[in-house]
Write a structure and sequence with these properties.
With 132 residues, this protein is α/β, with parallel strands linked by helices. 22% of the residues lie in helices and 38% in strands.
């Protein structure tokens, strides 16, 4: 259904470092950066993804406010170990724990997820739907 999603961040450089570190265990990395020179304003954007396609974007500048309530973004993980590594990397990068890795059987019997609150108050999740 979705091709891509973007969120606004307060500190672009800190968020760039945070997401680069946190998404690496899931196999995602920086794909495309849009600079102020390219936008003709102070706006900066960075798309993360795999296989050369940016699916998740962060952005700052040009009057882009950070929402006070944050958003929820769930990243797909191939294994339970990747979910665990995401959670550990996020906490090490400054995120707050919002749910340790584990089965969430109320969603379905194989739903293995972990939750953190990022530097901007966004609720991030890594989830694996495969049994392990």
């Amino acid at each position: 259904m979705l091709d891509q999603i973007g969120i606004t961040v307060a500190d672009f450089d800190a968020s760039k470092a945070f997401y680069t570190r946190v998404l690496a265990p899931l196999g995602y990395g920086p794909v495309l950066e849009v600079t102020p020179e390219m936008t003709g304003s102070d706006a900066r954007h960075l798309g993360f993804g795999a296989g050369g396609k940016p699916d998740f974007w962060i952005g700052a500048g040009h009057g882009m406010p950070v929402t006070r309530d944050g958003v929820h973004v769930a990243f797909s993980a191939r294994t339970h170990a990747a979910v665990d590594a995401f959670h550990q990397a996020a906490l090490a990068a400054g995120a707050r724990d919002n749910g340790a890795p584990g089965i969430r059987a109320h969603y379905h019997p194989n739903y293995y997820g972990a939750f953190v609150i990022d530097l901007n108050g966004h609720n991030l999740e890594a989830v694996c739907h495969a049994p392990e």
